Amino acid sequence: MLRHRVQLSVLASALLLGACNAAPPPAQEPTPESPQAVRAVESRLSQIELEYEGPTALLEADMEAGNAECEAHNNWCDGTLEVYSFPWTSTQAPTVADAVESVFALRQDDRIPFRFQGNVPFSTMSQQLFFFDALDPHLLTELGNGTEQVQIAYYYASYLVAAGAHDWNHLFVVLFPQSHRVAVFNLVNHEI
Questions:
Q1: Is-above-0.70 flag for pTM?
Q2: Portion of the chain with pLDDT greater than 90, in percent
Q3: Which among 25, 32, 75, 182 counts the fewest CB atoms within 10 Å?
């Protein structure tokens, strides 16, 4: 059911974006959109249909330990980890851009102003794990096949949450292209 919601929300977002950029319609009676036009929109969408899988027991324990450590230090950070699987039948390998598009389609109600920081190696993400450092190497061993090269897109956002207080968000979208999984790690540091 979640897979269908993701597909519909991605399609709705694409249709909305197309409608926002379209020229105003002529003053005639509207005609229904042809099936050919719908296929053109769908062909530009990500091929990755995410299905929530959730973290493994070990990854869940890593996240609980990291969040407990955050709380012990005046609750100045929070971490979340979402894990998705996706079916894959294409002869082309999935890309991190496809994974990012699908993840942000799920997060479309998220108002955080993320800025793309680039595609980064695992070592860059590893340096940002903070109290969640047990995710290195557990993320790779629990979700990967041991040999695949993960692809990681890094997003960052800083915004005012109260007078003189900011939140800093580090969002990593991790694609496991052979294991057909996507992990989304979000670390939020709070200015107190």
A1: yes
A2: 62
A3: 32
